[in-house]
Amino acid sequence: MGMGESSGPSGYKEYVAGLLAGVATVIVGHPFDTVKVKLQKHNTGVHGIKYRNGLHCSARILATEGVRGLYTGATSSFVGLAFESSLVFGIYSQAKQALQGGTQSNGPQPQAIIPSAAFGGAIISFILCPSELVKCRMQVQGTDSLVPKSSRYSSPLDCAFKTIKKDGVTGIFRGGSATFLRETIGNAVFFSVYEYVRYYMHLQLNTGSSNHRNLIDMGVGIMSGGVGGVACWSVVLPLDVAKTIIQTAPDKSSSTNPLQVLNSIYRRAGLKGCYSGLGPTIVRAFPANAAAIVTWELAMKLLGIKND
């Protein structure tokens, strides 16, 4: 299959498929994310209520804010993640095709997968950094927060404008290096694991009859996406913890170097502190990424893009 056929008319289709994958991710994953950010903030802080675990935190949110509370900050997430997934899946898919060239190889090619995924991650980190800064600051001020009502942000836009007014345009890119590292490394891990799990599962299952093809594809999608997501977050969670701390730090003078921040968390709270929010993150990573991959593969199929 030549490069021309794949990147010609279907050029935009990969981005559409990625967009749909992003929407699926938010619907399934956002409630877990709200819980994760609250745990990271409240359980590393000095004062305030400590949550026993993710379930305790979820129960508190549902009791005080209802289901809407679980989707706090989801509007910016919907736009952000739809856009982000569209880019990361689209760039990944096209870059991988370009790097693989016309070669028909058996099995995934890491020399094409890793740079494509890291490149996609690098590009989106520039969009993700400001959008997540706003999201983290909004999430931190909800239930059981110590932020006084009067100084809270009324909306994501309000938060963005106040940040720019107070800290300049660079202020909205606070945590940029942490986000860049998290996205390049994270996407490289995610797509590598996804491609390998997918390849080996299809090898095992392809022997059977093809009348359950769609079910098998969905099962493989759930497993490869889920395992990829769990692998990705197991690797980059410390960078995410550092990013949350950097982006929600009250004063501008505190460090924005993720390695410095992790070092001080490690000294204060050990490895456990660096993996703060591991439970909700891993619990979220499986269903959210499974949903993304199943949606991505289905969309690719419906749009008629060969995905092998």
From TrEMBL:
Instruction: Respond yes or no to whether keyword Nucleus is given for this record.
Output: no
Q: Where are the Solcar repeats?
A: 9-98, 108-200, 216-302
Which residue spans traverse the membrane?
A: 15-32, 70-92, 112-129
Name the UniProt record assigns to this protein? Mitochondrial substrate/solute carrier
- What's the family? Belongs to the mitochondrial carrier (TC 2.A.29) family.
List the record's Gene Ontology CC terms alphabetically: mitochondrial inner membrane
Q: Name one GO molecular function term.
A: L-ornithine transmembrane transporter activity
Protein's cellular compartments = Mitochondrion inner membrane
